[in-house]
Design goal:
The chain is α+β, with helices and mostly antiparallel strands. Strands 1, 2, 3, 4, 5, 6 and 7 form a 7-stranded mixed beta sheet that branches. It has 3 helices and 7 strands, in the order αβαβαβββββ. The two termini are 28 Å apart.
Length: 157
């Protein structure tokens, strides 16, 4: 498959991913991943140093589903929503049906009182595969530019 076609499909994948979270349909969020996947939120400094731990770490779609259940049923946090803006994907490599991609992002957080602020900026480092005609994430490493975080990383980035 040519780069332009993949870039278009990856743009669509990221747009649907962002809409799912931004529209508060997070129960569908794990469906963007294959069963054996990795989702991690980390900082640029930790990523550069090769540190595996992150603010959020899940190594399966089942763990992502558990995170959604906890957000809906167990965790107590101020209601908020996000607005994701993603940049143009850079295709880094392709092999054995997997495409490595880097995508810049910015997330605006909107609080219940209407306050809006830049919550996170950074890049997604993804491994994308095709499953039954649909692109899915095998890996999504969310590398945030800043090492400072609000302690409340409730929703997925």
């Amino acid at each position: 498959m040519d780069d332009l076609h993949y870039t278009h499909r990856i743009n669509q994948l990221n747009a649907e991913y962002a809409r799912c979270i931004d529209d508060d349909r997070i129960e569908a969020w794990p469906d963007f991943f294959v069963a054996e996947c990795l989702y991690k939120i980390t900082t640029a400094d930790n990523h550069a140093r090769g540190r595996e731990a992150g603010l959020v770490y899940a190594d399966s779609r089942a763990m992502l589903q558990d995170r959604v259940a906890a957000l809906r049923e167990a965790n107590i946090y101020e209601r908020q929503r996000y607005r994701h803006l993603t940049g143009v994907p850079s295709l880094l490599s392709q092999s054995d049906g997997m495409v490595a991609v880097e995508v810049p992002f910015i997330v605006i957080r909107i609080m219940r009182d209407g306050t809006s602020e830049v919550f996170a900026t950074g890049r997604y480092l993804d491994q994308v595969v095709e499953v039954t005609g649909q692109l899915r994430f095998r890996e999504r490493i969310v590398v945030c530019d800043s090492h400072r975080f609000d302690t409340l990383v409730a929703l997925p980035l």
